[in-house]
Design a protein that fits this description.
Elements (H helix, E strand, L loop, with lengths): L7 H5 L5 E5 L3 H13 L3 E5 L2 H10 L4 E5 L7 H10 L5 E5 L4 H9 L4 E4 L4 H15 L8 E3 L2 E4 L4 E4 L2 E2 L4 H12 L4 E3 H9 L7 H14 L9 E4 L3 E4 L5
Parallel strand pairs: 1-2, 1-3, 3-4, 4-5
Antiparallel strand pairs: 6-7, 7-8, 8-9, 10-12, 11-12
Length: 241
């Protein structure tokens, strides 16, 4: 069974999270690392996929800022291999404006993405948002419905007693649905409540709902729990009706 991911600040009491920046452009890497360091983060850097995996093995990061277009081993493969060691949060960087590339990053488990050229300050805000939501919620009890159980404190989820592996955003999305059964939410609502953003690419929500359905539905092609409400968005129905 995969061990639940425990952030550096929870393991050591040090509030300075460790961020691994992976980009083959030295200018981008230096600027991003500089902004993150000034924001109080411990920063490691790598300029290719294999080096990134070595760095992650030496010093387990609390979050990875990962360029999609890397030489040799692209960001998608790096993300897949990082996931094998545990659900470390990933913010993907892409130089392409093509929606297909952004969706590919989300499909392999990226929690957020920023398209180049980007504002370093915006990237820092995205990193802060992802890390903030990765912290256990000690004030919320366990949530249960339809054979699903979520423990916000341990950040663990199970289906019929069997642990399921969820990314950060998938976990938050499932928790939100369990807290609000029977209510319909638009993609804008979910972007605001789960991602913490009043703006953004709504396809992010669509991809995460599809991935979550693949892990909690008996037949993801005919979802009974996370239902589409046409013209509105999505609704969680514990009874599956």
């Amino acid at each position: 069974m995969q061990q639940p991911y425990e952030p550096l600040w929870a393991r050591t009491g040090d509030r300075s999270a460790r961020v691994l920046v992976v980009d083959d452009d030295p200018t981008v890497s230096e600027v991003v690392a500089g902004y993150l360091a000034r924001a109080g983060y411990l920063v490691d850097r790598a300029d290719d996929g294999p080096t990134a995996l070595v760095r992650a093995g030496e010093h387990r990061p609390d979050l990875v800022v990962l360029d999609l277009m890397l030489p040799g081993m692209d960001g998608l493969e790096v993300c897949r291999r990082l996931r094998r060691g545990g659900p470390v949060p990933v913010v993907m960087l892409t130089a392409r404006g093509d929606e297909d590339d952004r969706i590919l990053g989300l499909e392999v488990g990226a929690d957020d993405y920023v398209t180049k050229p980007f504002s370093p300050r915006e990237l820092v805000l995205r990193v802060e948002s992802v890390l903030r939501r990765s912290r256990p919620d000690a004030g919320t009890g366990a949530l249960r419905a339809a054979g699903l159980a979520v423990d916000p404190t341990a950040r663990r989820a199970t289906r019929d007693g069997v642990e399921i592996s969820l990314t950060l955003r998938e976990f938050d999305l499932l928790s939100f649905f369990l807290r609000h059964p029977g209510r319909a939410f638009s993609r804008e609502d979910l972007m605001r409540e789960v991602w913490g953003w009043d703006f953004g690419d709504l396809s992010t929500v669509t991809v995460h709902v599809r991935r979550l359905r693949g892990k909690v539905e008996d037949d993801p092609a005919r979802p009974r729990l996370i239902q589409t409400v046409w013209g509105v968005g999505y609704r969680f129905e514990p009874g599956g009706e």
